[in-house]
Specification:
The complex is a heterodimer of chains A (94) and B (997). Chain A has helices at 33-41, 82-93, and strands spanning 2-5, 9-12, 17-21, 49-55, 63-69, 75-80. In chain A, the strands form 2 sheets. A 4-stranded antiparallel sheet of chain A has the order 3-4-5-6. A two-stranded antiparallel ribbon of chain A has the order 1-2. Chain A has one domain: Folate-binding superfamily (Folate-binding fold), CATH 3.30.2270. Helices cover 22% and strands 35% of the residues of chain A. In chain A, strand 1 and strand 2 (9-12) form a beta hairpin. Chain B is elongated, with a radius of gyration of 38 Å. Among the domains of chain B are: 162-290 and 424-499, FAD/NAD(P)-binding domain (3-Layer(bba) Sandwich), CATH 3.50.50; 667-856, Gyrase A, domain 2; 904-996, Elongation Factor Tu (Ef-tu), domain 3 (Beta Barrel), CATH 2.40.30.110. With 997 residues, chain B is α+β, with helices and mostly antiparallel strands. Helix content of chain B is 24%, strand content 28%. In chain B, the strands form 14 sheets. In chain B, strands 9, 10, 13, 14, 15, 16 and 31 form a 7-stranded mixed sheet that branches. In chain B, strands 45-46-47-48-44-38-49 form a 7-stranded mixed sheet, with helices on both faces. In chain B, strand 41 and strand 42 (726-731) form a beta hairpin. The chains are: A alpha+beta (94), B alpha+beta (997). Chain A binds chain B through residues 1-2, 17, 19, 22, 25-33, 35-37, 39-41, 53, 55, 57, 61-63, 69, 72-74, 80-86, and chain B through 250-251, 253, 451-453, 687, 709-710, 737, 741, 744-754, 889-891, 893-895, 897-898. Zinc ion binds next to loops of chain A. Zinc ion is lined by residues 5, 7-8, 56, 59-60, 62 of chain A.
Chain lengths: 94, 997
């Protein structure tokens, strides 16, 4: 499997670390216990298309949001998460 | 039994270059280019192995890597290798091969007696006997079975050879170099695509090497040679022989094993024996060919029974005749072609036996013209001879009924050449593709479509295209489409013309010949000794699924992985179940296609290269000062520095005592160090740490506790505020990378608005802790530009100074509980700073100390590490509840208040003191006296020189309420019970006056 890192290009999956479900959003720190419980424990485990979080550990260390098929491993899209996205866009614009 | 070397033919051997080798202790002579199989056959050595279960004599059945029977052990000592297939072994001067599965010798195999006991070795024998006997039964029998059964023996010595791993890249990967593979490669190569063609055998050409056809008017072999020559000359082509593609994985990642030096006595000094390739292929062309199919009849495993096409290969490529009077049995026209080819090559075929009643008259005519007798409507019912073929019984056969219809007659013969049709080699396609489709005409499965993230195209006989000219055309088309999909404009080349037309390979559906009155042994899986009656038995016992049958009988699980057995087994199952084969289905082939050496998988990552080693910049000093090193994860750390004659216990007691009474220094470069920098750094730290971080002043450090999102303690360390926007965070050694990754995750996904940047500095900083009452005096003697007096530089102060010319950053922190300082400097100055402090400490008798003493000092102080921060404990459990701020939210705060984490029956950190004045055992369970119910466990133990007691830390239910209680620490595995007293975990200097002083 290869992941197309927006910073480094197509790289082997071994360079990345899976960081869990990329579709969830971290609740605010002061959110209540139920919200945090849902965030930490409640997961869909889809067979098929899934949004995931991958850290480019052995590369640029960007956190990537990857849309991937969990059956075929086909990758549909890769984008930078949060902060890096803003910085990358800024640099690309300059 | 009378195989011999022909006077002519054999284009792969060089008759001017004799090669001597050993087999079974005897010296033989072959020619350069021979395989072990061809060289032994040429000397009429046919009985070369014994079968796995019944120890029946076995010989060579095939001419390639699918060989199930002719399996030997090569070499000896560290290079001994079992389960080598004789047709794949290229002989070289001095090669030493041994038969396997034979005891005491090949000629007198005592275990052949198993053959007489065969009823008890029927399918499922092992399961029935040993599962019912239970675990004890299995353990009792196991050693006997292993000794009797074993499929050859691996060396127990270290492997002296070197292995490598490499990566390959291609627009078009062509697997196989027969007609279709060459045509595909040529098309792609001429179009300019980057082509990689892999051939598992030593020579390119596949079936063309033994073909009697002509291509574009020249012998197929010549066309093959010219094509390979053209490909070799193209800069965009890489040809790899002796390279087996073993697996197709996601994104066209392909695994390959290159046998670099297996054809030599031993690798050259610079050479790897095997090289494992990871090939990243744009497109994949599977030109993997087809296997001729064995037939199932009584005695079909005898040495001298061989696939018809294999006999042609031995004659054409190696100039070896399988016998002086071979009989051909075929259920399709290709067997006739093999017989005619053999005749042309000088092998005297006299009889063809064919169960079909009607056969193409042209074939019969050709046979008649060669004086070959054809017995239509007949089969070989049985083979006589044990270690070789002495004759066959030829009997009439009813194709519709699938039964013999008469006793038949005996015919003198010395070999039986079988063609049961052809099975496309869909192994790789099956790994990475959909369900194979059954083709009723070929009585075989054809490749299914590739999975969405793999793109391969099958061609030639692998795709069921057996006519040579059509196979060439299908190879060209595969090459063209792969080239196009790889983004290169394909050129079209005219399809070569082939003469004559290839034989029709569609078989009559006769694959097994049930013996009359059920007597005899008809093998389906030759290497695992699975017979037709085993499959019938499995059916009677209710095994309906093909996957279950496979596991119950072990069919298809030998080193040929069902390449020979699969179709015949499915046919027998389908018949027993009275269902069509397509409903029975087939098993999915799994990687690897051929056995892989473990060495090739490991590559260079063995011994000292097993994994990367991390060392402190001060490492060499530790080693030259006699430190005993300890591997913790990848790190090599000094464990203790024994003086001459000192035991580990004596050493750590001396080291820890010196720290409490004088001064010692320990290397802490191993700590994780993360630079946290930016205008929002304080806010970021305040979110990831459970205690307050917003108001830490510049020039101060603070101990920080980090929780997981679920509220459990994750890590701890000190963080130093170096300037307004810059912090240096330290983490535990083991969690350094994980903490960084987790913080990057939170920053990127949850709080992208925070202006902060995280950078690992673990390797950039060297660190050392100077600890003990004399530590201040030592540092004052060597540090300039920083006032270290008690008033100037209080507990938790951070400041910059110099040692000589070298800038250092010093924090007054203590893990040992003594007055102590951590001195950090750039890695490349680490050694110089360490030596300078050591020199300054001479007057104070400073000593270096290691992880053992460090552990003792921390246990005496009740400081927690990974043994207590074990992924289950909360801050409150560890007595650190006060570090969870009530005034802010932080990672983990929301779930900290869950019911189960607040229960008053939780395990809590306690100190334990031995009441028996002996060492406690880590991992022992804590029980009330007289009870065996665990109320907790011992986490870390030491002898405390400060207390002069054996002490430990532990986690105990309601531990904080139980100080003063006497409990029993039990370690049942060692039969140990130990009276202990529960105490405050801070054993030593509980008010901290020593480190604050
Ligand atoms: Zn990257």
């Amino acid at each position: 499997m290869r992941i197309g890192c927006p910073v480094c290009g197509d790289r082997d999956a071994h360079e990345f670390t899976y960081q869990g479900d990329g579709s969830r959003t971290t609740p605010p720190l002061d959110a209540d216990q139920d919200q945090w419980f849902a965030h930490v424990y409640e997961r869909t485990n889809p067979m098929g298309r899934h949004t995931e979080c991958w850290l480019h550990t052995g590369g640029c260390r960007a956190v990537l949001i990857v849309e991937r098929d969990t059956v075929t491993h086909e990758i549909f899209s890769v984008r930078l998460a949060g902060a890096q996205a803003a910085i990358h866009d800024e640099e690309a614009g300059q | 039994m009378s195989a011999y070397r022909l006077a002519e033919n054999g284009h792969l051997i060089d008759r001017d270059k004799p090669v001597s080798f050993r087999f079974n202790g005897q010296t033989y002579s072959g020619f350069d280019g021979d395989t072990l199989a061809s060289a032994l056959l040429a000397q009429d050595v046919q009985h070369i192995a014994a079968s796995f279960k019944y120890h029946r004599p076995r010989g060579v059945m095939t001419a390639g890597s699918q060989e199930p029977s002719g399996v030997v052990t090569l070499r000896s000592g560290g290079r001994q290798e079992p389960n080598c297939k004789a047709p794949e072994v290229e002989i070289c001067e001095g090669l030493d091969a041994h038969p396997q599965n034979v005891w005491p010798s090949l000629g007198f195999d005592i275990q052949a007696v198993n053959g007489l006991l065969s009823p008890i070795f029927a399918a499922g024998f092992y399961y029935k006997t040993f599962f019912e006997a239970g675990q004890t039964g299995w353990h009792f029998f196991e050693r006997f079975i292993r000794r009797a059964a074993g499929m050859g023996e691996a060396s127990r010595l270290p492997d002296p050879d070197r292995y490598e791993r490499a990566n390959g890249f291609a627009d078009v990967l062509v697997v196989g170099s027969g007609a279709a593979g060459l045509a595909a490669a040529l098309t792609a190569a001429r179009s300019g695509a980057k082509v990689l063609m892999a051939e598992e055998a030593a020579h390119f050409g596949g079936g063309l090497l033994a073909s009697s056809a002509t291509i574009n008017g020249v012998p197929a072999r010549q066309w093959c040679r010219e094509t390979v020559l053209e490909l070799t000359g193209l800069p965009n082509v890489t040809l790899m022989a002796r390279t087996a593609i073993h697996g197709l994985f996601d994104d066209n990642t392909v695994g390959a094993l290159e046998r670099v030096a297996d054809h030599k006595a031993q690798p050259e000094p610079h050479e790897a024996r095997h090289r494992h390739w990871t090939i990243h292929a744009g497109q994949i062309v599977l030109a993997t060919g087809a296997f001729e199919r064995p037939m199932v009849f009584d005695g079909n495993d005898r040495p001298g029974v061989m696939l018809a096409s294999a006999a042609v290969q031995y004659a054409a490529c190696y100039g070896v005749a399988i016998g002086r009077a071979p009989v051909v049995m075929t259920n399709n026209d290709s067997g006739y072609q093999s017989a005619f080819d053999l005749r042309a090559l000088g092998v005297p075929i006299a009889t063809i036996v064919d169960p079909r009643d009607t056969v193409d008259p042209a074939l019969l005519e050709q046979a008649a013209s060669l004086s070959v007798t054809v017995r239509t409507g007949h089969v070989v019912a049985s083979v006589s001879g044990r270690k070789g073929v002495k004759g066959v019984r030829i009997a009439p056969f009813d194709v519709r009924g699938g039964q013999l219809t008469g006793a038949g007659e005996h015919l003198e013969a010395d070999a039986v050449l079988v063609s049961g049709g052809w099975t496309p080699n869909i192994n790789l396609a099956s790994q990475a593709g959909g369900k194979p489709a059954f083709d009723a005409e070929l009585q075989a499965f054809l490749p299914g479509a590739p999975r969405p993230n793999v793109s391969f195209v099958s061609c030639g006989s692998a795709a069921g295209v057996f006519d040579l000219q059509s196979a060439l055309a299908s190879g060209q088309e595969a090459g063209r489409s792969a080239t196009e999909k790889a983004g290169v404009k394909p050129l079209t080349t005219p399809t070569p013309t082939v003469e004559p037309t290839s034989p029709d390979v569609r078989p009559a559906a006769v694959f097994d010949i049930p013996p009359r009155r059920g007597k005899g042994k008809c093998f389906v899986d030759f290497q695992h000794d699975v017979t037709a009656s085993d499959i019938a038995l499995a059916h009677r016992e209710g095994y309906v699924s093909v996957e279950h049958l496979k596991r119950y009988t072990t069919l298809g699980m030998a080193i040929d992985q069902g390449k020979n057995a699969n179709m015949n087994a499915l046919t027998l199952m389908a018949r027993a179940q009275d269902r069509p084969i397509e409903e029975v289905g087939t098993t999915r082939f799994r990687p690897p296609y051929v056995p892989l050496s473990l060495g090739a998988i490991a590559g260079r990552e063995t011994g000292r290269q097993f994994r990367p080693v991390r060392r402190s910049p001060i490492h060499d000093w530790h080693v030259s000062n006699d430190a005993v090193m300890l591997n913790t994860g990848p790190w090599e750390r000094p464990r203790y520095y024994p003086k001459s004659g000192e035991t580990i216990t004596e050493a750590y007691i001396r080291e820890a005592t010196t720290v409490r009474k004088g001064v010692g220094m320990v290397d802490v470069s191993f700590l994780g160090k993360i630079d946290v920098q930016g205008p929002d750094a304080a806010e970021f730290l305040n979110r990831v740490y459970s205690n307050a971080f917003l108001k830490l002043p510049v020039g101060k450090a603070r101990y920080g506790l980090m929780l997981r999102e679920d509220g459990i303690v994750y890590d701890d360390g000190t963080t130093w505020r170096l300037s307004e926007h810059q912090y240096l965070m330290t983490t535990t050694t083991a969690n350094a990378a994980l903490v960084l990754a987790k913080m990057e995750y939170w920053h990127a996904t949850a709080w992208p608005e925070l202006r902060v940047k995280l950078t690992s500095l673990t390797d950039q900083w060297a660190g050392m802790a100077v600890a003990g009452p004399d530590s201040r005096a030592v540092l004052q003697a060597v540090v300039t530009d920083l006032a270290l007096g008690a008033e100037d530089f209080g507990f938790m102060a951070v400041g910059n100074g110099r040692i000589g010319d070298i800038p250092v950053t010093i924090a007054r922190l203590s893990f040992s509980g003594e007055l102590a300082y951590e001195v950090f400097t750039a890695s490349h100055h680490g050694l110089a700073v360490w030596e300078a402090i050591m020199a300054a400490g001479q007057d104070f008798d400073i000593i270096p100390y290691g992880t053992e003493a460090l552990g003792t000092l921390r246990i005496e102080k009740g400081h927690v590490t990974a043994t207590e921060i074990d992924g289950r404990t909360t801050a409150d459990d560890l007595g650190l509840g006060g570090l969870c701020s009530k005034k802010k939210s932080f990672i983990g705060s929301a779930l900290l208040g869950r019911e189960a984490l607040l229960e008053n029956n939780r395990l809590q950190l306690v100190g334990l003191v031995s009441k028996e004045s002996r060492a406690l055992l880590p991992g022992a369970h804590l029980t009330a006296s007289g009870s065996s119910e665990s109320a907790g466990h011992v986490t870390a133990t030491t002898y405390s020189p400060a207390l002069e007691r054996y002490i430990a830390l532990g986690l105990l239910r309601r531990g904080r309420e139980r100080h003063g209680e006497t409990l029993t620490a039990r370690f049942p595995l060692r039969g140990d019970t130990h009276e202990i007293e529960v105490v405050n975990p801070v054993f030593f200097d509980p008010d901290g006056s020593r480190m604050h002083g």
